[in-house]
Fold each of these.
Amino acid sequence: MHRIEPAPVVKSVTVGAPPERAFEIFTARMGDWWLKTHSLTASGQKTVVVERADGGRWYEIGTSGEVKEWGRVLAYDPPKRILFAWQLNADWTFDPDFETEVEVTFEPTAEGGTTVRLEHRDLANYGAKAEVARASLDSEGGWAGLLGAFAAKAA
Amino acid sequence: MTYEGKVLAALADPTRRAIFEKLAKGRSSVADVARSLPVSQPAISQHLKVLKEAGLVSDEPLGQRRIYSIDPAGLGPLRQWLDRFWEDQLAAFKVLADSDEASGAGPRKPER
């Protein structure tokens, strides 16, 4: 059937560092800037690892050494672009069968800095999960889940 | 009709789904929508009314026209949460990227 896609989340930020450096910081040093409050580890986040190759893993490591998978690197193209598969479902659980895309591009600015643009897309995949549909139905105005319910009924 | 029922009914019609998808790509006037679909403007206005009543689209005046868009408040708590999440993360990234630059660390060679 015809599928309805929720609009992707698009964010951008301009930094003083040139693209090579911005890309390096974004990927190789993700653990240095990632907000530690957003972690799946029980012991607290020690660092984040982005394996620098197509098909690489994307995960975090807790201070006790436990590993929590986040997803994969679908395309590694320094210093222009990195494409992640974000595989945490709406319950914040890693699910190898669940996938949304996070694409990050690095564009040089006239001043020698970089505009970093992030797009989190395929959000309709969240709606395909029944539990998300239920959660969204409970909240007035949530339609990502409603679309999933619609897809199920219209199938 | 329940809220869910309204939304499902609104989207059950293929023309309304097509209108909704067009608006998902960008805000449009009735005339803009009419140009991209083989449907008359009055019919499109009627469909937009149903979509609006279901909370799926919102409209605002622009001169003598009305501009329709997908209602961002209707996108669901999860999407709103992700929006805020990435905003905060990019802000944190900027702090480090700018401080590194300010400390005089030069750019490294791009990797191959």
Amino acid sequence: MKLKQIIISILFAIFALTSVSQASSTEVPVVVEETSERKAYEPKSIGELATSFWETTGLKAIFDVNDGEMTSEPKGPAYEREMNWFESSLGRIIMIVIVFILFYLAIAKNFEPLLLIPIAFGGLLANIPLAGMGGEDGMLGIIYNMGIANEFFPLLIFMGVGAMTDFGPLLANPKTAILGGAAQFGIFGALVGAVIIGFDLQDASAISIIGGADGPTSIFIANRLAPDMLGAIAVAAYSYMALVPVIQPPIMRALTTKEERVIVMKTTRKVHRLEKLIFPIVVLMLALLILPESAPLIGAFAFGNFAKESGVVDRLSDTMQNSLINVVTIFLGLGVGSKLAADKFLVVETMGIMAIGLIAFSVGTASGVIMAKIMNKYSDEPINPLIGAAGVSAVPMSARVVSKVGSEEKPGNVLLMHAMGPNVAGVIGSAVAAGVLLSIFK
Amino acid sequence: MADEVNYVLEAFKFMLLGMGIVFLFLFILVKVVELQAKLIAKYFPEDTSKTPATPAGKIADDEQRKVAAIIAAVTEFRNNKS
């Protein structure tokens, strides 16, 4: 036992030494450069000092633009380009106003404040002139490189969502999973739409995932297929997730009749603990057999859920669904917010992405509802078509919205549990759709 | 122009493939889950009857108390409101 410990500590020591020596060998030339650049101080008049200070203020950078300020890129100075007048002055002001609108929506209207506050604040920081917050060495740039550029944060979020998800309602009434599939028409409908308005197929695929109303998946796919548009796609996906309570109810009401909306569904059966335990493994096995391309997303999701349902690692599952997901949400929000810099966000594509995203989201909701109507016609058990709207994977917002609309129509009719089935199936469905799109462009 | 039409057609093909796979995946999932439910109900039926005997019985009791408390709170709130 002791011998083992000694060997391990020696290994650690060797590892630490080698890594330190590597690090120092790479750092040395940089240090030398810095010292050689340092100039001898020359005396300056107070006027010169004031002028040089004026040069570094944000006021000058915004209102008196003459020199080429560079954009800040997390990939490093090699990717920087000179900003034009619009990007460094008016664009920034517009973006700061947009950020304040996002703050308002988050705080006063309570639209997904957990996401909007970090994203909007990241956007505010990214629009500070001259600070280079989004650059390779800036705070936002570091966060971006740490977990967004390599798709790590979305997977951690998926893990947490997996640990939070209870598949009980889905297992109790498995047929409702098909509704979660139908809502993915939003994704592919948007794909067609995006191609029609002129995006190329790969960009269109990345945009269309917004229709799944799934932030982490959108970021994951955008990173693989269209990294340039990541910011706009992530912002669109998260804003539409936040707007679920605004966008979905009118569509739901338009497509259903009063009689359909008041349908009371049978209470769900009790689900055996073993079913819940085996379920994440079953999903993962299916992913493994049919679509290994979706393995990162479904794998993280299944892991989180398995840890929860195993019942023996409560500490781990508790960390995943609380501390870990909270930490990652802060970083993910700020990192995505860095893409709200005027030079990246205020481009023509953004308008197209926002428009397509809205269409995608609406089509997804609508096709879920229509599918539920069809199922209601042909099934022996009554199905309230409203639950189809929960097929988009915004968990658990859309299930809550469905429940709210349902109880408005008929007080006491609680659809929440029934809507959770399609809702969690929607998460799986959009991960599968994402896997299909990835497999096409492999 | 001909090119663009072609792309739209491609997009529709993506849709066909994508929705096909999504439905196939979920369909197999539904079937597997139904089968699994049947198998578990068949081979581990005593598990369900055993667990409620001691701990789950208590949980259910707790749950009922919680529900009662919530209902009481809601009625109280409504009464106050009106």
